[in-house]
Amino acid sequence: MIYRETGQFKTSYAADQQIFPIRQDRIGIAILLAFAFVVVPLTAGNYWFNAILIPFLIFSLAALGLNILTGYAGQLSLGSAAFMAVGAYAAYNFQVRIEGMPVLLSFILAGLTAAGVGILFGLPSLRIKGFYLAVATLAAQFFIVWCLTKFPYLSNYSASGVISVPNVEILGYTFDTPQSRYLLVLSIVSLMALLAKNMVRSSTGRAWMAVRDMDVAAEVIGIRLMRTKLLAFAISSFYCGVAGALYAFCYLGSVEPDGFSLDLSFKILFMIIVGGVGSILGSFLGAAFILLVPIFLDIVLPWLSELLHLPVDSATVSHMQLMVFGELIMFFLIVEPHGLARLWQIGKEKLRLWPFPH
Amino acid sequence: MIKRFKQLTLATSVAVACFAGALPAAQAAEEQFFMIPSYRVGPYGANGQSFYGGFIDYLTYVNMKGGIDGVQITWEECETEYNNAKGVECYERLKSKAQKAPGPIHTMSTGISYALVDKSAADKLPLAMMGYGLTSAVDGSVFPWAFPLVTTYQMQASAIIKFLKDKEKGSLEGKKIVYLYHDSAYGKEPILALEAESRLNKFTLVQIPVAHPGNEQGAQWQRIRQEKPDYVILWGWGVMNMTALNTAQKMGYPRERMIGSWWAGSEEDVIPAGDAAKGYMSATWNVAGKGVPLIADIEKTVYGAGKGNLKDTSKIGTILYNRGVSAAVLSVEAIRTAQAKFGKGKAMGPEQVRWGLENLNLTEARLKQLGATGLLPEVKTSCNNHEGSGKVKIQQWDGTKWVPLTDWIEGNKALIHPLFMADAQKYAKEKGITPRDCSKEK
Amino acid sequence: MQFFLEVLIGGLLSGVMYSLVALGFVLIFKASGVFNFAQGAMVFFAALSLVGCMEKGAPLWLAFILAFGIMTLLGIATEKFVLRKMVNQPPISLFMATIGLAFFIEGLAPLLWGNAVRRLDIGLVDEPIPWILEHWNMVISKFDLVAAGLALALVAVLALFFQYTRVGRALRAVADDHQAALSIGIPLQHIWALVWAVAGFVALVAGMLWGARNGVQFALTFTALKALPVLILGGFTSVPGAIVGGLIIGGTEKLAEIYIPPVMSGIFGGNFGGIEGWFPYVMALLFLLVRPEGLFGEKHIDRV
Fold it and tell me: Does B18 fall in a domain?
């Protein structure tokens, strides 16, 4: 009843091709954006900005990048954290070494640097497939982090290899409050998400999906495999690179190469699998799940044990958290192997018919 | 399913909102709140377990003895898993609670403390980094809120060199020392200091990095076997330490010529290596064992009342447990120092606690009063010197326990401290910080 | 030359230790097409169970049997509660489920046995063999030799098991095609539970040896990282491939760590050690470019 497309007729190609062809979707997105841009900054506290919303957006962006590569182009990668590292360090170097470099431009250049590195490590994908490729991308993960540790030039000769980024300043305005940083990240992420949404339904996106479903068949119908795969690597790394730059500049403020470890790569992979492989929305849902559930457990479990007067020490609570987290992942996969985005999809289908399902 | 999922998210948000809302209200009048971003799971969980066990036990102990001049200590733990991002989340979650009357924050992780240096300075919360973290914070004029208390990696490296020099009857000239280190910020920090020492004392320094996690060191030790160094300085963390000891045994390198940093010198590092660890030495800034009256008293008072934090009581008196106690002693003493100036029996605000940390004077006499004689060195901090001591002991593993070999050894301050100052100045320039004038502080 | 040989032999022996962990991956992948991310966690859990039982007073052999029992239970539970419910799901979902499993085990193991770092004494000392040291001035460790022997024996047994027993044939049939195997009456569930139990057994052997070497602690889960390049080099589905891959990786990795960093320092200046983290992966990658299915992997022919 609420979500029904009956009666929405398209009379021109342009109308038929818009990103959100259904009116309810348009309204929903508009409300969501308005909420994120207006209501959230006015109401949320510092904790929400610094510890939840900003990392959530940044990780969503990284997950989006990986989703383009894995979900749309079908190339499994375990090196996303390394591309984030490239982005973070590149942005830092552009900022520190070039006087008067605009921050946004350095973010874009950081993304492009990451894209270049991504193409380089994407080359093996022309020959290697599946889990072999996944493990091969680990080479990128370890090699890049090692390079950042080993070449002192890249960390501006810091003795420990840790870089502390300068403040973000755009057109004389310094982004030093959590709200302003949140808005900056939100703008970049919404813009890039919109771009991605558009990209995956363009001819490029369709070529990716063809390659994902069967690359030999895709080649037969005239898709240039090399170009398509490398483009996916480049764009995916661009997204990860920008996410990395934001991670350093708007979230942590100081990063070390070891922070971009394999764990982080896996975390990003979890996000897209839990959220939904091959779904823009899924990247956001997955990031929220992987980020928020541990925090939620960390708050709720000690509270529960206190409430029930269980004689549980803090170590046990920490171990329980890990177990419950693992269980939740398995539970969601059993219930819906295609991720949270699929759940949302099913929900929409149901709403379309509600309240008269037959 | 959708419904269930929605309920779940709703419950999540409601619960989170409740907690976020409840934060400031929980603060009672005369209470000092410690945020404890601890870790008890993950690769270093065993280390965190002992350290934070000791830390919390001492806080409980102080409370049982009537608090800090009547001010009760409260605290809340948050699991960081030794992960930077999670550490930041913990900090952000607990900071509003700590803003009124904080205790120093101990993360026991170089990565997390790096991420918190700027944040804690902006939020005006004192950050303690005892034997880890950003060492150039020794310069309090640039880092008013960060305290690498007791001693730093560089001073430790210098003290180790001093010890070796004494052992070699006053000269290291022509000797060869291998520096085997964890290839991370932790392992890289002392390199500049060691290089300076090698120029000064004319010994050859061979640097051999070990990639994380360091559970396989065949090649590194083969190289050491080939180099035939006089000493090996081991700068490892977690599994890297026992692997180094075992591989040294495999390669026939004498353990008596290996000397570790204080993160490579706990029971957790040597017990798994078994006999391979016998004779191995390490630096430490606190002694092990229950011989210290304070530790014995904590066991009696706290565990006797069933309020102990550790399930596994065999950890009491281990190096890391005692280190946790030492960290807590210093934190509480800093608050006492602040109280002496700003009013006894009152909860201290952030600025006051910071002042207490900066004007800490933990003398031998005071340590004796606390029953902590010999547990840790004397500490006297100032605006110029947030380190306050720079002294370590060298201890040796005899197969069952750590035996202190020396008295407190101080590193070469004249050589090392200028390195900190130069680094701090560079940091101030990059970040646009105007250093305080320390002569105006009192 | 002698130094070169010493490094090479040391590397080959370490390589066998990597193979041990890789074997567990291969077994499960071969039988169920699941890339079992939890293998590292299983190594940790197995070793911890072994030490836990020994601390309760059991002798090594009894503790070994008990730990094997625990691993079997874990295997059966995994099959019953996770895999059975995910039959016919895409491999990536199954992969993800094993990651959930890894978290679960990493929480469960210390919860059951405590998270202290333990020593595991299996009566073998990691010392150089004096005779070789005297006559050849080479360091060859007793421990490594025994470990290598054990690993080779294990591989031989597994290879025979797969090749010649009824269950082994069933396993291979299941690996080929779940549904076809089901339709000819192979009990899929039993086979899967069985293969997880066998993987648990391999994890136990690996955990025992690695634990005796480096102590029983959380870091045992990292052994999986050493096994992955072995896996791609040898092929995901080949038991002998795991051994050969391990030997290649172990040998080259050690040689590279000794000989490459000085060259790089010569070019760029500075210290370039610690390449062991990435070198095996890059080597495996280069190797894959020549042979995309690994050394002994099954050649995959795409049909449109």
Answer: no
In a shared domain, residues B157 and B301: no
Put simply, the chain B residues between 300 and 359 with a CB less than 8 A from any chain C CB are 311-312, 315
From chain A, the residues in CB contact with C241 under 8 A are: none
Most confident of A30-34, C141-145, C179-183, C188-192: A30-34
The reply to whether residue B239 touches residue C214, judged by beta carbons under 8 angstroms, is yes
* Helices (H), ranges, A250-313: 262-275, 280-307
- Tokens describing residue A110: 């950081």
The answer to whether residue A164 neighbours chain B at the CB level (below 8 Å) is yes
B252 falls within a domain:
yes
What distance in Å separates the CA atoms of residue A33 and residue B353, rounded to the nearest whole number? 43
Per-residue model confidence as pLDDT tens for chain A (358 residues): 567 777 778 888 888 888 887 888 888 889 999 999 998 888 888 888 888 899 999 999 999 999 999 999 989 888 999 999 999 999 999 988 888 888 999 999 999 999 999 999 998 888 888 778 887 788 899 999 999 988 888 888 877 778 888 888 888 888 888 899 999 999 999 999 999 999 998 999 999 999 998 888 999 999 999 999 999 999 999 999 999 999 999 998 888 888 898 889 988 998 998 898 889 999 999 999 988 888 888 888 878 877 877 767 777 888 888 898 899 889 888 888 888 888 888 888 888 777 776 6
Detail the DSSP E strand segments found in B39-139.
Answer: 72-79, 105-106, 127-128
> Contacts of residue A319 in chain B, CB cutoff 8 Å?
40-41
Q: How far is CA A6 from CA A1, A22, A352, B341, in A?
A: 10, 10, 9, 75
Q: Does C96 touch chain A (CB under 8 A)?
A: yes
Query: Range of B57's domain?
Result: 26-151+289-380
Residue A93 domain boundaries: 44-261
CB contact under 8 Å between C236 and A132, yes or no, is: yes
Does residue B21 sit within a domain? no
Determine contact: A134 vs chain B, CB below 8 A: no
Please count the structural domains in chain C: 1
* Cα distance between residue A172 and residue A158, in whole Å: 28
CB contact under 8 A, A138 and C228: yes
Contact B434, B137 (CB under 8 A): no
Can you give the residue range of the structural domain that contains C158? Answer: 17-246+273-290
Structural domain tally of chain B?
Answer: 2
Give the domain CATH number at B242.
3.40.50.2300
Judge whether C90 lies within some domain.
yes
Residues B317 and B271 in one domain: no
Please give the residue of chain A at the shortest CA–CA distance from C234. A132
pTM, 2 dp: 0.89
Task: Report whether A277 contacts A300 (CB < 8 A).
Answer: no
Q: Is residue B182 part of a domain?
A: yes
ipTM, interface predicted TM-score of the complex: 0.87
User: Cβ A128–C288 below 8 Å, yes or no?
Assistant: yes
- Rounded to whole angstroms, the Cα distance separating B148 from A160 reads 15
| Chain pair A-C, CB pairs under 8 angstroms | 142
- Give me the residues of C, 196-225, that contact B with CB < 8 A: 210, 213-219, 221-223
- Using only C-alpha atoms, what is the Rg of chain B? 22
A258: closest chain B residue by CA: B184
* A318: in domain: no
Per-residue CA distances from B331 to B328, B338, C284 (Å): 5, 11, 51
